[in-house]
Amino acid sequence: MSNSCCAGILYFPLFFFCGNGRRVFFSFAASLAQETSPDAGQLLKRVRQGATLQENKDIKGQIRKRSVKIPFSMSLRGNLIAFQYQLNNVWNRFDLKFKDRGQEILSWKDGKAGVLPVAQYAVPIAGTDVTYEDLSMRYLYWPQAKIVRDDAASTVKGRDCWIVQIPNPNSGVGQYAWVRVWIDKENGAMWQVDGIDRRGELAKRFMIDSVMKLKDGSWFFKRMKVEVRDPSNPRRTVSVSYVDMDSPE
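RE: above sequence
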């Protein structure tokens, strides 16, 4: 499928949306085309702003690893993003809450929310390769992002991208010491995320795998591929999961 169809992919945590004029920051696309060296923080801010377009609407899908299929939903609710996933016919909830300084992940139990211990950020959800930290993509809110130059690696899916590197402000928390995000220079789409471990090696890669066309002619993310790399050989993929999105109503 031609990448030109995705001129408007927008971020909603782990997920990406593409569409027609009603769903796309065309002014952002124009500004990117004019800027030779945009501010990395502003790039990430505009990527995150895609979430606000879906406020109070549940977005549904499933996390899949081999025969394991975990239904989930997510929605923006005020100052937090609520996530729910189903395991053994029971729905579990956690939230990414935004504070004046930073964010935290909340876990719900017996109708009450409590702060999720940071040691659990890297715990896989229901036996998949997707963790709480991955699904929330909290690292897109880390400060001190910068654009790095790597001409040999700046193209993803045939699209020319800015590569934004974001250091972990608390290197002892979570899976990644830093992440790299590939953002389309033309339209602000986020095509790939690499999670880098504390040794400076690739630990996990997220990539858009396919998109789907909706009834109104717009485009929507269909599948995300999640690759876990071998710690002793980061070029080797040892496990793969997928995030499949339902067609929005």
